[in-house]
UniProtKB/TrEMBL annotation:
Gene3D superfamilies for the chain: 1.10.150.130, Intergrase catalytic core
Organism of origin: Lacisediminihabitans changchengi
Source species taxonomy: Bacteria, Bacillati, Actinomycetota, Actinomycetes, Micrococcales
Domain Core-binding (CB), chain residue ranges per copy: 60-140
Compositionally biased region (Basic and acidic residues): 367-377
Similarity comment text for this entry: Belongs to the 'phage' integrase family.
Region described as Disordered: spans on this chain: 352-377
Pfam family, one: Phage_int_M
InterPro entries the UniProt entry points to: CB, DNA_brk_join_enz, Integrase-like_cat_sf, Integrase_catalytic, Integrase_recombinase_N, Phage_int_M, Phage_Integrase
A single GO BP: DNA recombination
GO molecular function: DNA binding
Protein name, per record: Tyrosine-type recombinase/integrase
UniProt domain Tyr recombinase: residue ranges: 163-345
Length: 377
C-alpha cells in the first residue's frame, strides 16, 4: 500500500507499507512514487519467496544480536564452547558493536580480523573468526541479515607475534624429561605418560583407576573428559569411549599412579591427591624453562607422530587419538612424507651400492617401446 503525503513546506512524499498477516512488517518513505512502487514490489516478492527481512531487525545493533546469540547457544553447545564464543566476541570493538547488523560488510570483517592479527596469535584469531561466523549464521536464521559477511572472508596472512611452536623430537623430549625430573618426578611422569598415550589433558585429569585394563591387552579406557572449571563430559570420540593401548613404560607409569587408590579414584592427581590442575603442573615442572617454545599439547602430537613412524595405519592412529582420520592426515601429512622420503633414500642407496654399470652399455629404447609395443635389440 502506497500513500501520498504532503508536508508543511508543500513537498510530496510517498510512504510505502508492507503488511503480512494483517500487520505492518515494513514501511519506508520516498520522494518519488516510482521508487516507492519499486521498493513495494521487491518486498512483496521477498515475502512470497520467504527471503523477506524486516528492516527493523536489520537495524538492530550488532552488540545486541551478540547477546541474543550467546543466550541461544546456552542449550545448544557445551559450556566450554559457549565461554569461548563469549570471550572471542568480546574482542569486537565498541564502534562495530554499535553498528546496525545489516550494515556489517565483508570489508568490516576483514579489517577487524587484520587488526586482531596485529596483537594476537594466528590460531587465536582463527578461533575468533569461527565464533564470528557462527554469530552471522544465527543472524541469518533469525532474519537479521540476508547475507553472511564472514563466509567469503579468508583469514588474512597477518604477522605472527611469536615464533611458531616447535614439535618435540626424541632428543628434545628426553632432555625435557630429564630437566623436569629434577623439579618434580611426580609431574614429569605425567609429561611422559602424555607422550606415550596422546591423551588430551582434559582426558588424563578425568581418568579413573577403574579405566585401566590388562586383558586382552594393556590399555586405558577414555570414557570422559573434564576441562578445568567445567563439568565432566563425554570425550571427543565418535562412540563415546575408546581404548588406548599402553606400552610397557606407559603401563608402568599408570600402575605407579594407581598404587593405593580405589577403583573410583582419579588415576593421576597432584601430590596432595587433588585433581590435576594445568597451572600447577606447568608451575612445578617449570614448563617455560624445561620446554621452551612448546605447549603441553605438543606431547600429543609427538605421540601421534611416533605411532605413524612405527607404521601404524592412519585409521588406527585416529581411533587411538579420538580424531577423524582426515584430521590426522591433514595434521601429520609431513610425517607420512618423511617415511616416504626415508624409504626412497634407502632404495637409492641400494642402487648406488650395487654393481656399477656403464651408461653406454644400456641399450636405447625407441619411442614405440616406451608405449609398451616394440623394444629395439
Amino acid at each position: 500500500m502506497i500513500e501520498r503525503r504532503t508536508l508543511r513546506d508543500g513537498s510530496v512524499r510517498w510512504k510505502a507499507r508492507i503488511k503480512s498477516g494483517g500487520e505492518v512488517v515494513a514501511q519506508q518513505t520516498f520522494r518519488l512514487k516510482g521508487d516507492a512502487e519499486t521498493w513495494e514490489r521487491e518486498q512483496i516478492r521477498a515475502l512470497q519467496l520467504g527471503t523477506f527481512l524486516p528492516p527493523k531487525k536489520a537495524r538492530t545493533p550488532l552488540g545486541e544480536v551478540v547477546g541474543k546469540f550467546l543466550d541461544a547457544r546456552t542449550s545448544q553447545v557445551t559450556a566450554h564452547s559457549q565461554r569461548t564464543d563469549r570471550d572471542n566476541l568480546a574482542a569486537l570493538p565498541p564502534k562495530l558493536r554499535a553498528r546496525p547488523i545489516g550494515s556489517v560488510s565483508e570489508a568490516d570483517v576483514l579489517s577487524f580480523l587484520t587488526d586482531q592479527l596485529k596483537i594476537k596469535e594466528r590460531s587465536t584469531v582463527a578461533r575468533l573468526r569461527t565464533s564470528l561466523s557462527a554469530l552471522f549464521t544465527y543472524a541469518m536464521r533469525e532474519k537479521y541479515v540476508a547475507s553472511h559477511p564472514v563466509r567469503g572472508v579468508e583469514l588474512p596472512p597477518g604477522a605472527s607475534q611469536k615464533p611458531a611452536d616447535e614439535w618435540f623430537t626424541a632428543e628434545s623430549l628426553a632432555a625435557t624429561l630429564e630437566e623436569q625430573r629434577t623439579s618434580s618426578n611426580h609431574y614429569a611422569a605425567i609429561t611422559e605418560w602424555t607422550s606415550l598415550t596422546g591423551l588430551r589433558w582434559s582426558e588424563t585429569r578425568a581418568l579413573r583407576v577403574s579405566d585401566l585394563q590388562d586383558v586382552p591387552f594393556p590399555a586405558a579406557w577414555v570414557r570422559r573428559a573434564q576441562s578445568q572449571g567445567y563439568e565432566e563430559k563425554a570425550p571427543k570420540t565418535s562412540n563415546g569411549e575408546r581404548a588406548v593401548p599402553l606400552t610397557d613404560r606407559a603401563r608402568e607409569i599408570a600402575r605407579e599412579a594407581a598404587a593405593g587408590k580405589r577403583p573410583e579414584h582419579y588415576l593421576f592427581t597432584s601430590p596432595a591427591g587433588r585433581q590435576l590442575s594445568m597451572n600447577l603442573y606447568r608451575h612445578f615442572i617449570k614448563w617455560s624453562v624445561t620446554a621452551p617454545r612448546k605447549r603441553p599439547h605438543m606431547l600429543r602430537h609427538y605421540c601421534a607422530s611416533q605411532w605413524l613412524r612405527a607404521g601404524i595405519p592412519i585409521n588406527q592412529v585416529a581411533e587411538w587419538l579420538g580424531d577423524d582420520p582426515r584430521t590426522v592426515l591433514k595434521v601429520y601429512a609431513h610425517v607420512m612424507g618423511e617415511r616416504q622420503t626415508i624409504e626412497a633414500l634407502r632404495r637409492l642407496n641400494e642402487i648406488a651400492s650395487g654393481p656399477s654399470q656403464d651408461p653406454r652399455g644400456i641399450p636405447e629404447i625407441s619411442n614405440r617401446s616406451r608405449e609398451g609395443q616394440i623394444v629395439d635389440k
